[in-house]
Design goal:
DNA-binding, DNA polymerase, domain 1, 3 domains, 4-stranded antiparallel β-sheet, globular, 38% helix, Dna Ligase, domain 1, alpha+beta, 420 residues, MutS, DNA mismatch repair protein, domain I, 5-stranded mixed β-sheet
Length: 420
DNA sequence: TCTGGGGTCCTAGGACCC
DNA sequence: TCTGGGGTCCTAGGACCC
C-alpha cells in the first residue's frame, strides 16, 4: 500500500510562505529566463493561466488581474523541499523521494490510513508551512490517481484513500476522470487511446493488458496492470546512479560569436563537473550542442551536436571543459543567432572501478586535490567564489531573472526579519 | 523584445557478424 | 521468376515525467 504526498503548487507555496500578503491572490513562478509559468496558484489557474504558458503572452491578463510573478528561486525550493521530506521520513518506515515536491510512502500494514494522511498534512503545514495532499492506493499508479482526486475535490480536505471504498464507488470515481490523468499517459497516447474509445481511467482499467502491450508497448501494459492493483513498480529508496548529466540554459539575449558562446559553455561544463563529482562518477564522453531559437523562424535556423569521446575517463572539470570547447569549435557556424548551448556527460561509470587502457592513467592525485579544493571553496563561500577564467567575468549571456525573491533560508544576509 | 531544464525508458532500424 | 537467417550492438528519436 502506497501513499503519495504531493505539495500543492509547490514553487508558489514556497514564495507565499515569505509573502503571506499574497494569500488569495493569483501568483505564478516563471521558468529560467522568466520564460514560462511553471507553477501557478489556484487563483492563477482559475484565471486560465496554463502550465508552461509563455509569460509574455500573459502580460495583459496579469495587468488586469494583478497576477504576481516570481523568477525561479531554486535554492529556496530545494531547501524547503528538504524540510518537507525530512518530516515525511519520520512518518513512514520507507520513503521514496520522487521529485522536488512529491514522495511515495510505503504504508503497508497501517490500518488507519486516512488518519495517517491527515496527520501528514497537518504536520507538514505546521512544521514547514507548505500545504500537501495525500493519495492512497494499492499501487503507485493508483496512489497517484488518488492524489489527483484529493487535489481536485475540496470536500475531501486533501486526503483520499481509493482502497477504502467499495468497488462500485471506486469505479464511479475512475469513470469520471479522463485517461490522460493517468501516470504514464501523456498527450500522444491519450489521443490514440481516445480514438479507440478508451476515454476514462475506468475504460483503460478495463482493457486487456495484452492487447495494450501489442499496440502500445510494455510500459503502458504495466500501467494497466498497476491500475488493476497489480504492483509492477517498486519503491526506490536509494536513487539509482545517474546515467547522464546535462547542463544547459537559454541565453538572456541571442549570441552570435564563437567567443561569446564559449563563455557560457565553459560555465556549464564546469557545473557538469561539479554534479559529476557529487555523483561520484567519471565520464567517458562529452556531448556539446548549440542551437538557434526555433520560435524565431524568420531567422536562419541551425542546430548541431558533437560527441567527444575521452580517451581517459575523468571527473576533472578541466578535461570536460577542454572536450566541450573542442566540440563547440567544430560545430560552430558563423552567421546565426544562437539561443542555447549545452553540455551533456554521457556514458558515466562509478569513479575508481574503471577499466582504463593499460597506458592511460585516470585522474591523478593532483587533479583530484584541485577539484576537491575548488568544490570545497564554492560550497563554503558560495557558488562562483572560484571559477575558470574561460567562464568570463562580464557575463552578457546571463539568464534573465528580474523577479527573484530572496534566499530567505540559505543566506544569512537575506534572512527574513520579524518585526515586533 | 519575450516561448525552461532537467531526466528516464523503450523501440525501430541499421551495421555487422557468422 | 529467384536474392538466407538470426543474433547482437549501437544510435536516434519518441514518449513520458516533474
Amino acid at each position: 500500500m502506497y501513499a503519495l504526498v504531493d505539495c500543492n503548487n509547490f514553487y508558489v507555496s514556497c514564495e507565499r510562505l515569505f509573502r503571506p500578503d499574497l494569500k488569495g491572490r493569483p501568483v505564478v513562478v516563471l521558468s529560467n529566463n522568466d520564460g514560462c509559468a511553471v507553477s501557478r496558484s489556484q487563483e492563477a489557474k482559475d484565471l486560465g493561466v496554463a502550465m508552461g504558458q509563455p509569460w509574455f503572452q500573459l502580460q495583459e491578463l496579469a495587468k488586469r488581474h494583478g497576477i504576481v510573478a516570481f523568477s525561479s528561486n531554486y535554492a529556496l525550493y530545494a531547501d524547503l523541499s528538504e524540510r518537507v521530506m525530512s518530516v515525511l521520513r519520520d512518518m513512514a518506515p520507507r520513503i521514496e523521494v520522487y521529485s522536488i515536491d512529491e514522495s511515495f510512502l510505503d504504508i503497508a500494514g497501517i490500518t488507519e490510513r486516512e488518519q495517517l494522511g491527515r496527520q501528514i498534512r497537518e504536520r507538514v503545514v505546521r512544521w514547514v508551512g507548505i500545504p500537501v495532499c495525500v493519495g492512497i492506493g494499492a499501487t503507485k499508479t493508483r496512489a497517484k490517481l488518488a492524489n489527483h482526486i484529493a487535489k481536485k475535490n475540496l470536500e475531501l480536505a486533501g486526503v483520499f484513500d481509493l482502497e477504502a471504498l467499495p468497488i462500485e464507488e471506486q469505479a464511479a470515481w475512475l469513470g469520471r476522470i479522463g485517461v490522460g490523468e493517468v501516470w504514464g499517459v501523456g498527450r500522444k497516447i491519450s489521443r490514440r487511446l481516445e480514438a479507440l474509445g478508451v476515454r476514462s481511467v475506468a475504460d483503460l482499467q478495463a482493457t486487456n493488458p495484452e492487447t495494450i502491450r501489442q499496440q502500445f508497448g510494455v510500459t503502458l501494459a504495466r500501467t494497466v496492470e498497476e491500475l488493476r492493483g497489480v504492483a509492477c513498480l517498486d519503491m526506490e529508496e536509494v536513487s539509482p546512479r545517474k546515467k547522464q548529466i546535462m547542463v544547459s540554459r537559454s541565453f538572456g539575449q541571442p549570441v552570435r560569436l564563437l567567443d561569446e558562446l564559449r563563455q557560457p559553455l565553459v560555465s556549464y561544463a564546469a557545473n557538469a563537473g561539479v554534479k559529476l563529482r557529487e555523483e561520484g562518477s567519471v565520464t567517458h564522453a562529452v556531448m556539446v550542442f548549440a542551437r538557434t531559437n526555433p520560435f524565431r523562424d524568420k531567422y536562419p535556423q541551425y542546430s548541431a551536436s558533437r560527441l567527444v569521446p575521452l580517451v581517459v575517463p575523468t571527473q576533472d572539470s578541466r578535461a570536460i571543459i577542454e572536450a566541450a570547447v573542442a566540440g563547440l569549435n567544430d560545430l560552430y557556424r558563423p552567421g546565426y543567432l544562437y539561443q542555447k548551448v549545452g553540455v551533456m556527460l554521457c556514458d558515466l561509470s562509478p569513479a575508481g572501478v574503471d577499466q582504463t587502457d593499460l597506458f592511460a592513467k585516470g585522474d591523478d592525485e593532483r587533479s583530484q586535490r584541485l577539484m576537491a579544493t575548488m568544490d570545497g571553496l564554492n560550497r563554503r563561500m558560495g557558488r562562483g567564489a572560484v571559477f575558470f577564467a574561460g567562464q568570463g567575468i562580464q557575463r552578457r549571456w546571463m539568464v534573465r531573472s528580474n523577479l527573484k525573491s530572496g534566499a530567505y533560508t540559505t543566506k544569512w544576509a537575506q534572512l527574513q526579519v520579524a518585526h515586533a
